[in-house]
Write a structure and sequence with these properties.
Helices cover 30% and strands 24% of the residues. It is α+β, with helices and mostly antiparallel strands. The chain has an eight-stranded mixed beta sheet, sandwiched between helices. A five-stranded mixed β-barrel has the order 1-2-3-5-4. A five-stranded antiparallel beta sheet has the order 12-13-16-14-15.
Length: 595
Amino acid sequence: MIYKTHNLGELRISNIGEKVTLSGWIDTKRDLGGLTFIDLRDREGRTQIIFDIDVADKEIVELAQKLKNESVIKISGIVKERYSKNMNIPTGEIEIFATELEVLNTCDVLPFQVSGTENVSEAMRLKYRYLDMRRPQMLNNLKMRHKMIMAIRNYMDEQGFLDIDTPILTKSTPEGARDFLVPSRISQGEFYALPQSPQLFKQLLMIGGIEKYFQIAKCFRDEDLRADRQPEFTQLDIEMSFVTQEDIMDTIEGLAKRVFKNVTGEEVNYSFERMPYFEAMERYGSDKPDVRFNVELKDLTDIVKDAGFTAFKNCVANGGVVKCIVAPGAAEKFSRKIIGEYEDYAKTYFNAKGMAYIKITEEGVNSPLAKFFTEEEMNAIIKRSGAVVGDIILIIADVKKVVFGALGALRLRIGKELNLINNDEFKFLWIVDFPMFEYSEEEGRYQAQHHPFTSIKTEDMDMFMSGEMEDIRTNSYDMVLNGSEIGGGSIRIFNPEVQARVFEKLGLSEEEAREKFGFFIDAFKYGAPPHGGLAFGIDRWLMVMLKETSIRDVIPFPKTNKGQCLMTEAPGKVDTKQLMELSLKVTLDEDKNKI
């Protein structure tokens, strides 16, 4: 049996006169008495099929008239030149006059229309994902995902990397997020963990002499979800031996350019800028800045520290900073109500205590702060900010972490709401030299900002060995695209003594370090080479390149922001027998009304 001689995006005017067999889904259908027009669709496109009472048997035409959209059919017929051409599709110059029809499967009443521009809720799309995949945008996203993966595999093979997989069931180790745990039936009372990343294994592969490794790996993190995050995600994992940071960044920059061209069709003809972490925070308030627009943070601390505004003066006296950004041309657009919304945004989401503003108008300065500053001080603020007539200066005073978070977020909001961002532009950027440690208010201790296996810059080793924790920089690098971190990595620690010292500074005793990383620590006794690598978030990277706003639109079967699969209804309850085999018992938390 032959289902297809051609796909449904293939036939052209050069095929006129040929007898063809085509199969696919009915996209649309129009009945005009003795003529029935069907647009037949498959993965590659659409072709118009005509059932004409003067060409086909009456029974075939009548059967075609009864078919519903999304039914699956096979037809045979003759290719003819289309009378009313449709130049919007590749097959728009031809049509098929069907002489045979076989119904392969009928379609029930659809929960939503696959064709057309009907606005379908995301919940419906996720519940019936197999129907959603037939829609052009989702189908295109999956095709681009395939092109992206193939570009990665081809490039890595050309560069001499080996594709090696690592375990899914592994040991729980502290890596920054909560693990998904899997109970063991055989070793009762013990648990596997699903990998947050293959970090330890890829370093073990380097100790094993593999030298160049990559993997398209499934990773799992039990963390709060958002538009660019999923509990189960796909990671491009890479590790290399006997390399410097420059070697890795040059290789990966080449990969990024290859993938970008394969997905978007556009060339990246520039070298990626390299910006130190501390510079990125000072200028943009973010370690993943969107550099497609020029609004930057400006430091006013030295100007306002002795001025008459008590809130600023006290902030600086207590070790805080005062910084600002400019909303260009917003003086007329931003009413007091809108400014209040910006202030609430900074307070609610980024813990700022307040936000001051200065409007620069033709009539002069308009600001509640004006009475607290001399003319000289106000002019100094305006000059430092770079504001001109028609602009608004937005000011936050607080500890650095709050100021960076609040102004960084306000900067992005200004960029979007004032249309300062060219959405057709793509801007790659490297952020380098991240701090080794960051203090966690929740934990009450220092944590590794990347992970505890990141090597420290040679010029900062003396500070590290002397016991300092602040401003210790690492040999690390994140790749940013249009304000999204798409990948990151580092040169690793390969000296056992330095690794032990890092564990110690993170508050891990020798016993705790051995309990959590014993197999890893032991491996370093047997000749570990210098090595480093990085990992890309495949899903997020593709989301940015396709200009999607949700990571769920580039994943075949994603979860909701509550971690649920609406199609399979996972997670779900299991029967008592399964729980007993695992020596588990489910108890209900009455206070929280959940398991």
